[in-house]
Amino acid sequence: MDVEKNEHQGGDPPIKREWRSPLRILAMGLVTIGFFISCLVPYAYLTAIIASNGRLFTEVSKVPATEVGLVFGTTDRVSGRENLYFRYRIEAAVRLWKAGKIKTVIVSGDNRTRYYNEPEKMRQALIDRGIPQDRIICDSAGLRTLDSVVRAKVIFGANPILFISQRFQNQRAIYLAKANGIEAFGYNARDVEAHVGLRTQIREIGARFKMWLDVNLLETRPRHLGERITLPR
After folding, report:
1. How confident is the model at residue 197 (pLDDT cuts 50, 70, 90)?
2. What pLDDT is stored for residue 189 in this prediction?
3. CA 26 to chain centre
4. pLDDT digit string (tens) for 54-69?
5. On the CB side of 64, how many CA atoms lie within 13 Å of its CA?
């Protein structure tokens, strides 16, 4: 009786011994996953920078002449105020057009409802600034950067492509373009001041992680494809 009593007093109750191993396995699994993600997130962020090295331009004179420029969509207003990302991308596209660096502009963005149409807003802004409407093509299925990039080649037959957006998105777009066999360059539109664009910068960390997963693990394709569309020549 004394031996049995000491065994119960000196060790864990039987129910604790049953749970110790599964909990340890779970804890080790969570630590492993956390370590994997903590290493992969900065790696994914850097891969876009490396992929775009030597392919981004800030001076119009140094941009290689390309048949097609692709402007990535964003809304023109946020909470009733002007969206500077929108304005700066439009201004960048106009500079390239006037310098003769592009002959056709694809405006690619979200057209989720009749009341929200990024491509049409961009198209009208470009027309207002002097680009002929017959040289502007709307891609209303550019729901994500990946969709816009892949559709530019598969649907519109654009290759090479000059991406027109802020540096952070151009870097990611060029990574996606390379992964899909597209020759691409980027012209960096003026960026938004850090205190204004902080939320976008934080969101970009997650976007690059998703970018890496889409290419290397998930093999993600655009949500919508469709028939080939011929660009004006």
Report:
1. confident
2. 98
3. 33
4. 999 999 999 999 999 9
5. 13
Contact in structure between 70 and 159 (CB atoms under 8 Å): no
Sign of the C-alpha dihedral, residues 136, 78, 85, 144? negative
Cis-peptide, bond into residue 160, ω within 30° of zero: yes
Q: How far is CA 85 from the centre of its chain?
A: 14
Residue-wise pLDDT for 118-158, tens only, equals 999 999 999 999 999 999 999 999 999 999 999 999 999 99
**Beta carbons within 8 Å of 169's beta carbon, 6+ residues apart:** 72, 145, 163
Structure tokens at 156: 């519109």
Please state the separation of Cα 40 from the chain's center in Å.
17
Q: Which alpha helices (DSSP H) does 99-166 contain, by range?
A: 118-128, 145-154
Which are the contacts of 45, defined by CB distance < 8 A and separation ≥ 6? 205, 208, 209
Measured between alpha carbons, how far is 57 from 187 in angstroms, rounded to an integer?
Answer: 5
Residue 7: the pLDDT is: 47
Check: CB of residue 141 under 8 Å from CB of residue 151. yes
Q: Do 152 and 73 contact (CB within 8 A), yes or no?
A: no
Q: Where are the domains of the chain?
A: 51-218
CA angle 187, 190, 195 (to 5 degrees): 140
CA distances from 55 to 88, 172, 188 (A): 20, 12, 10
Q: What is the largest CA-CA distance in the chain?
A: 98
Q: What is the pTM of this model?
A: 0.84
- Domain 51-218: CATH architecture, name and number where available: 3-Layer(aba) Sandwich (3.40)
* Cβ 186 vs Cβ 221: under 8 Å: no
